[in-house]
Automatic annotation (TrEMBL):
Sequence ranges assigned to domain AB hydrolase-1 in this UniProt record: 26-192
UniProt KW keywords: Hydrolase
GO terms of molecular function: hydrolase activity
Protein name stated in the entry: Alpha/beta hydrolase
SUPFAM superfamilies in the cross-refs: alpha/beta-Hydrolases (SSF53474)
UniProt organism field: Actinomadura luzonensis
PANTHER family, per the entry: AB HYDROLASE SUPERFAMILY PROTEIN YCLE, MONOACYLGLYCEROL LIPASE
Length: 253
């Protein structure tokens, strides 16, 4: 396991690293997740195991620290990730980023362009959304006030998301989880979608077959490669890891 101090409090981000030559691949998890359980099978796939790969956890999640002083906005997550990658000697990386992590990766590419040579977004959040009502299949975390969530609301979320998602969500700092969810619902300015369409690097958006992102044609017109992955839901890398690995092998250097 590797780590780097990324915050004035001394908080560290940690990651599991697979050795190999550059260019580096960086895997970023979604809300309430952690990278190693979601990506290990794919990152070690024979088609992909030839490159240095970092399976990294954002502050407040998984094996990384959870500083109370950290704001847990998408921008703050992107800057902390940039600090970790810089200290790991990473530049010009390919980022493979799922859901909320995709939003962070987009912001990272916009704010720290030297770190990112390409993006593969896995059913990532591109648009802000109102926290109420709770979206079907969603966590609903942003619908709570922070104190309400950390005292009792998390129990309702636990029961709503089910044992699979909760198995990693329970590792997250409750305040960090809530603040991240609120920032994700609020989105960025410009929006993640607008940032994505303006980026000069190669960009790929993967989505479950039958559930395309909003304005799919607009993404394509902006030069974003889009591809539906069969036999998968939101967690594409877990639902169909072989198809996911073959797709990454096609699009990654």
């Amino acid at each position: 396991m590797h780590d780097a101090i990324v915050h004035p409090s001394g908080a560290r981000m940690r990651w599991v690293e697979l050795p190999g030559p550059d260019p580096v691949r960086v895997y970023v998890h979604g809300l309430g997740a952690t990278s190693a359980p979601y990506y290990a099978e794919v990152a070690a796939h024979p088609l992909l195991a030839r490159r240095r790969s970092l399976l990294i956890d954002l502050l407040g999640f998984g094996i990384s620290d959870r500083p109370l002083e950290f704001p847990y906005t998408l921008e703050a997550h992107a800057d902390a990730l940039a600090e970790a990658l810089g200290k790991a000697g990473v530049s010009g990386a390919s980022l493979i980023a799922h859901s909320m992590g995709g939003a962070v990766a987009i912001v990272l590419a916009a704010r720290h362009p030297g770190l990112v040579a390409g993006l593969v977004l896995v059913d990532a959040n591109l648009d802000p959304y109102p926290p109420l009502p709770v979206p079907p299949g969603g966590s609903g975390i942003a619908s709570y006030g922070e104190e309400e969530f950390v005292t009792s609301g998390w129990k309702e979320v636990r029961d709503r998301v089910g044992p699979h998602w909760w198995s990693t969500m329970r590792l997250a700092d409750l305040r960090g989880l809530h603040r991240t969810a609120v920032s994700l619902a609020r989105g960025t300015d410009p929006t993640m979608r607008d940032l994505l369409t303006s980026l000069p690097v190669p960009r790929t958006f993967l989505y479950p077959d039958g559930d395309p992102p909003r304005d799919l044609e607009g993404l394509r017109a902006a030069g974003v490669r889009t591809l539906a992955i069969p036999e998968s839901g939101h967690n594409i890398m877990l639902d169909n890891p072989d198809a996911f690995a073959h797709t990454l092998a096609e699009f990654l250097p």
